[in-house]
Design goal:
338 residues, alpha/beta, Aminopeptidase, two-stranded parallel sheet, 10 helices, 8 strands, 17% strand, disordered N terminus, binds zinc ion
Length: 338
């Protein structure tokens, strides 16, 4: 407040001064009835989501090499993410363990759970997997070699790392937790993760582990938002059927926010059943936190982006406008939650 405005009060219009004096000195002045619905206090403006920064975070992950659990590249990427999160003011809980994948092989697991304002009871959970597929089983060549995972792994984590950069400034509303899940993409090949197979439980091992052993006892959140494959050029997001089953109100809130921000063309008001499972399933089923999946539906494949689980899932697929549409929508939802 500028102090000079008070000093200049003698410059107020005379009629206003008279009116003020009259009000103050008249004990019988009729009282204004209290409004029936008091206006809610205004919320601080939502920070600007920086798509260049999100893009750089995707690039950085890819630069480590494929983030296959148990490899040095995976460890180095996770170390870097933990450092970023701590620099952004988060309290970081690293959940480590061992999981058995569909081959019977045991793999180290490292979920990263970053928390802002952990003392606040009301929470919002954001999540994405950061591991990448150890093989390119949907490719015609080099099927047994790991993929870059720029979109599948890199994009969701990149958007959340950019959102994380702003969370220390959030002094209102629920506290926010970001969960970077591990060993999401080590499921059984052939059709897997889509609807045409029955190997559902071999996917999302990190999220399953978290849901069964929450590192914060009794962990709960008001709702959750999962990001998976959100970075491809011209990505379009339909209401994903499992999300509609468990958390239709959260889908409605997010899709409405996207439309209000001008991303209505990308967030289509139509439900598609194309995801067999993803990290949101154990969070919904086991922890009973209503959680949605923002995941690209690709018209040409009737499921995921054509680069899915191929060597084409590299930085050439990633587009800043897609990262921005998703990131600014999620940041707005988080910021406007009372
Ligand atoms: Zn995948």
């Amino acid at each position: 407040m500028n102090r000079n405005r008070f000093l200049r009060s003698h410059q107020w219009p005379a009629c206003l001064l008279v009116a003020l004096a009259f009000t103050a000195c008249t004990p019988d002045a009729p009282e204004t009835p209290p409004p029936t619905t008091p206006a809610l206090p205004e919320l601080p403006p939502t920070p600007v989501f920086n798509a260049d920064s999100a893009y750089a975070f995707v690039q950085r992950q890819v630069d480590f090499g494929p983030r296959v659990p148990g490899t040095p590249a995976h460890t180095a990427c996770a170390d870097w993410m933990v450092a970023r999160l701590k620099a952004a003011g988060a309290e970081v809980i690293e959940q480590t363990g061992t999981v058995t994948v569909y081959t019977g092989q045991k793999l180290p697991l490292r979920n990263l759970f970053a928390r802002w304002a952990p003392d606040r009871k009301e929470r919002i959970l954001l999540l994405a997997h950061y591991d990448t597929r150890p093989m390119a089983d949907k490719d015609d060549e080099r099927k047994n070699q790991p993929i870059d995972g720029a979109n599948d792994g890199g994009s969701g984590a990149g958007v959340l790392l950019e959102i994380a950069r702003h969370l220390a400034a959030k002094e209102h509303g629920p506290g926010v937790d970001i969960l970077f899940t591990d060993v999401e993409d080590h499921g059984q090949p052939s059709g897997a993760m889509t609807l045409d197979d029955n190997s559902i439980d071999t996917w999302a091992l990190g999220a399953q582990y978290f849901a069964k052993n929450p590192p914060v006892p009794g962990y709960q959140a008001r709702f959750g938002i999962l990001l998976d494959m959100v970075g491809a050029k011209d990505a379009v997001f339909y209401r994903e059927a499992i999300s509609m089953q468990f958390a239709p109100a959260v889908v409605a809130k997010v899709w409405k926010t996207a439309a209000a921000l001008g991303h209505g063309e990308r967030f289509v008001q139509e439900t598609k059943y194309f995801v067999g499972t993803d990290d949101h399933v154990p969070i919904n089923r086991t922890l009973r936190i209503p959680t949605i999946d923002i995941i690209e539906y690709h018209e040409a494949t009737g499921a995921f982006h054509p680069s899915w689980h191929t060597h084409d899932d590299n930085m050439a697929v990633i587009d800043r406008a897609s990262l921005n549409a998703v990131g600014s929508t999620v940041l707005e939802v988080v910021w406007k939650e009372r």
